[in-house]
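To: structure desk
From: M.T.
Subject: fold request, one chain
Message: Could you run this one when you get a chance? Sequence is below, nothing fancy, just the single chain.
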Amino acid sequence: MPGVDRAELSAIAHRWHPIAAPVSPRTLRRLVRRLGVPDGGRVLDLGCGFGEWLLAVLAAAPGASGVGVDVSAPVLLHARA
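Reply: Done. Structure tokens follow.
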């Protein structure tokens, strides 16, 4: 579609689906616990989207720090908010 920013369309389409995978919130919590991020650990989330996975990891490991990276400006604006 000419004149339409694909990243913006994707951000709009996924606004109500922040976890871009067929994973329930319960399963997400279980998966991030299995990572075993240590206290003081660092996490890098490439293609972070809205940051839901990264936030879940940091919630499971409060002493850890994290960086989310994505190429979609609209998605990053939403994530920063």
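Reply (cont.): The chain has four helices and two strands. Let me know if you need anything else for the meeting.
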